[in-house]
Amino acid sequence: MTYSLATALFVSLGLLLWFSYLDWKWCSLGAKMTCSSIFLWFGIYRNSLPKSGVDVFYGRVITIALFFASLGDLLIAFEGEEWFISAVVAFMLTHIMYTIGFSSILWQRFKSRTANYYSLVSVLLFIVFTSYIVGYRIIIPQIPSNFVGICYGYMCTFAFIVLTF
Q: Is the dihedral of CA 104, 106, 107, 112 positive or negative?
């Protein structure tokens, strides 16, 4: 089963590269969605195998993240501001789910050690300050006003990702 999915993935990736080279938009979309579906199927297939503990939670969260990534790939193919914002939200949810999944494994390691909470607070303050400087002073002034909210949400998502690692 795994080998046939891997073979289908490599064939789909090859078609995606070829259709992108030829600039065949809808064929590229079909190949891209096939690749995304295979990644999602890998996640579903791996979750059907017996596991226990953190692995179950991790696998389910990563599979949900793969679903949102596939949804984002589909939505970004369409033109228009609403489609773009919907795709960005789907990709943001993907990143949040990846972060939750990866941090669930890190949290198990963190709980087994003594934590230095002062360093954690200082890292959090550094991220907030840096996000403010980079975001509001450099990035936000260059973005059209109707995209500021979604960009700020994405910046907060990446600050969360950095904080968890």
A: positive
